[in-house]
Amino acid sequence: MMIVHEVSELTGVSIRALHIYDRMGLLPASQKTESGYRLYDDAALERLQQVLLFRELDFPLKDIRKIIDSPVFDRNKALEQQIELLKMKKEHIENLIDLARGIQLRGVKHMNFDAFDTKKLDEYARQAKESWGSTPEWKEYEQKSAGRTVEDNRNLADRMMAIFTEMGQIRDQDPAGEKAQQLVKKLQDFITENMYTCSDQILSGLGKAYAGGGSMNENIDKAGGEGTGEFAHRAIEAYVQGRK
Amino acid sequence: MMIVHEVSELTGVSIRALHIYDRMGLLPASQKTESGYRLYDDAALERLQQVLLFRELDFPLKDIRKIIDSPVFDRNKALEQQIELLKMKKEHIENLIDLARGIQLRGVKHMNFDAFDTKKLDEYARQAKESWGSTPEWKEYEQKSAGRTVEDNRNLADRMMAIFTEMGQIRDQDPAGEKAQQLVKKLQDFITENMYTCSDQILSGLGKAYAGGGSMNENIDKAGGEGTGEFAHRAIEAYVQGRK
DNA sequence: AGTTGACTCTGACCTTGCGTCATAGTTTAC
DNA sequence: GTAAACTATGACGCAAGGTCAGAGTCAACT
Asked: Which fold has domain A137-242?
C-alpha cells in the first residue's frame, strides 16, 4: 500500500490529479485510513498505467473511465488500439519534423498545412472510443448505474467480493460441484441485476479475466484466498458447458 | 486575401480560434473590411504556420506571441529548437509504444512509469522559452509596450510603414545617398523610441530580414513598391558601415 | 428590388484538467 | 510534546477554446 506522495513520486502524476481521479471514479483509492488518507495497492497502479496510456492519447478523462469500466473492456484490444494511435501520432510528428526541415532549407514560401492535419488520427480515436462506449451492455450499465454514488459503487463491489469469499471457502472442492455451481449462478444473477445482462458467453469471458493474472484475479484472490480466481474460472466453465 | 472560412479550411484551425488569435495579437488579421470581416494575406499565413509549430509543442499561446514578436526573433534558431523538441516528443512516443508492447507480451506485472516521464522535454522547452523571453531587448520592449492597445500597435506599424513608403519613393536613387541615409536614421530612432534600443548591429540584422524574402520583405515591398526591402537593406548597410 | 441562405461579428457563458491557496486535521521524529 | 512535513477538503483561477444568442452582411436567385 502506498500513499499519495509515493504514488505521485513513482508515476509523475501530481497529488492534485490523484485527488481528482479518485473523486471522479477514474482511479479510486483502494482504501482509506480512518483519518481519510488515500491508500493505493498494486491493482490501482495497474489501472493507473492504463489511464496514463489513454491520457497520453488525449482521451477525455470521462471517456477513459467509461472505457476502462466498460463491462466488455478487453485490455488486449485496448492495447492494440493504443499502439495504433501512438503510431499515428509518431507519424504526425515525423511529418512536422519534415515540414520544419523543409522551411529551414527552402524557406517558407510554398506553404503546406497538411502536416497539421489530424483528421485521420481524430477519426480513429473516435472509432476506438465508440467501440467501447456504445455496446448495448455498456448502455444498460450506464442506465442502471445512473444516480449511484461512489458509496453505492463501493457497496456493490463489496457485495460481489462477498460472493468470491464464499467461493474461496470451497475452493478445495469440485468446481463442478453443486455448491460451486450455485455460487456461479448467484454471481451471474447479481451482475445481471446490478450491472448488465450477463449472458453465459459474457460470464465465460469474465471467468477468463478472473484467472488471467490481472488485477481482477488479484482482487478475487484477496477476497477468497490464493487460487480463488482460478477456481472461479473453472466453476464458470463447468456451469456454461453444463447449460449448452 | 482570404476570409476566416477559407483560412480555417486551409489550415484546420477553427474560426473561433482565429478570432481569439486575432484579439490577443497572436495572429492579427492583416486587414478588416468596413463591415468588420477579417482578411488574411500570405504574411499572416506564414505567421500562422510558425504559430502552429509552437502550438504543436504545447507552448502557451501567450509565450508564442512573445517569442514571435521578440525583437531578436530568429526564425532559423526557432526552427532548430522546434525540430529538437519534436525529436524528443517522437522519442517519448516510441517509449510509450515499447511500453504498450511490453504489456502485451509480458503482462502488466513489472510496472514501469518511466515512459510517462516528460522532465527532459519540459526542461528543454523551458530553456527554449527563456532563450527568447529574457533578452534585454525583449524586456525593454515589454516595458515600452505595456498598456498599449491593439489600436496603438496598429498605429505604430502604420507609422513605421510610412517610413518605408518614403524609402520606396527614392529606391531608384543611391542607397548611400543623403536622403536614404536620413531615412535610415529616422527608422533607427523610431524603433529605439517606440520599441527597443536599436543599436547599429541590431539595425543591420533587421536589414537582412527586410531583404530576406520573408513576410517582412513582402510587407515592405507592399508599402514602398517592389524592391523597397532590398533597397532598405542596402541603405542600412551603407549607414552602418559609414559609422564604424 | 426583395428575399433567402450561408456567412460574419461580438459577447457571454460553459468545459476540462488541472495549479494554487487557505484552513484544518495527522503522522513522524526528536 | 511540539515542530516539521504530510494529508484532506473546498474554493477559486486559468488556458484554450466550444457553444449559443442576437445582429449585421454578402451573394444569388427571383
From this structure: Globin-like (1.10.490)
Residue of A nearest to B214 (CA): A108
Question: Global pTM?
Answer: 0.82
Q: Which of B10, B94, B116 is nearest residue A11 as measured by Cβ atoms? A: B116
Name the residue type at position B106.
Answer: R
Assess whether A31 (CB) lies less than 7 A from strand C. no
B106 touches A: beta carbon within 8 Å: no
Query: Which residues in window 59-78 of B are less than 7 A from strand D by Cβ?
Result: 60-62
CA distance B204 to B219: 18
From CA A141, how far away is CA A69, in angstroms rounded? 10
Maximum separation of any 2 CA atoms in chain A, in Å = 79
Name the CATH topology of A2-68.
Answer: Multidrug-efflux Transporter Regulator; Chain: A; Domain 2 (1.10.1660)
Q: In b/e form, how buried is each residue of A71-100, taking b as 16+ CB within 10 angstroms?
A: bbeebeebbebbbbbbebbbebbebbbebb
Per-residue pLDDT of B26-58, as tens digits, reads 999 999 999 999 999 998 999 999 999 999 999
CB contact under 8 A, B86 and A97: yes
Distance A62 CA to C16 C1' (A): 10
Task: Between A134 and B9, name the one with better pLDDT.
Answer: B9
